[in-house]
Amino acid sequence: KMLLTRGAAASGTYKVGNLGTVRRPLLLIPASHGDIAAVELLLCARADAAACDSQGEPALCHTLRNVLSAGDGAREIFGLLLRFASATDSGSKIPEALREQARTHLRTSLRYARSRHEDAEPP
Questions:
Q1: Under a CB-based contact definition with an 8 Å cutoff, are residues 5 and 42 in contact?
Q2: How buried is residue 82: exposed, middle or buried, by Cβ count under 10 Å (0-12/13-18/19+)?
Q3: Which residues lie below 8 Å from residue 71, measured CB to CB, with a gap of 6+?
Q4: How far apart are CA 69 and CA 116, in angstroms?
């Protein structure tokens, strides 16, 4: 909220690390900290839910990783981003990278569940 009141664009970016070679959407600051209200505020102020960092990775992929690691507020934030990304007319849709990341996670989970099931069966 402070950034918006000081004139920052909701669709702005910030530099990551000391070298500043990677720029990420401003939306990822509150998303990384589990601040649901700030994420919703930025989205309502026209932040792009499907924006990518300077290396081409969508913000949705960052938030999916937060969900998979059980971060605070991660599911709610991911749900907000998905809802806003799929509801916009500006052409920002669900990125293919996100779909692939979800497929990979589901395949890994399935392999793990099958191996646990096989280990639990009596010989």
A1: no
A2: middle
A3: 32, 34
A4: 20
Prediction pTM value: 0.66
Nearest 5°: phi and psi at 91? 95, -5
Between the CA of residue 24 and those of 36, 56, 94, 120, what are the distances in Å? 18, 10, 18, 44
Token match 């709610």: residue?
76
CB proximity list for 21: less than 8 A, separation 6 or greater: 54
pLDDT tens figures, 16-55 = 777 767 888 888 888 888 889 888 888 888 888 878 888 8
Does residue 82 contact residue 60 with C-beta atoms inside 8 Å? yes
Alpha-carbon torsion (106, 108, 112, 115), positive or negative: positive
Q: What are phi and psi of 93, to 5 degrees?
A: -110, -175
Gap between the Cα atoms of 103 and 3, Å rounded: 35
Could you give the 3-state DSSP secondary structure of residue 23? strand
- In three-state secondary structure terms, 2 is helix
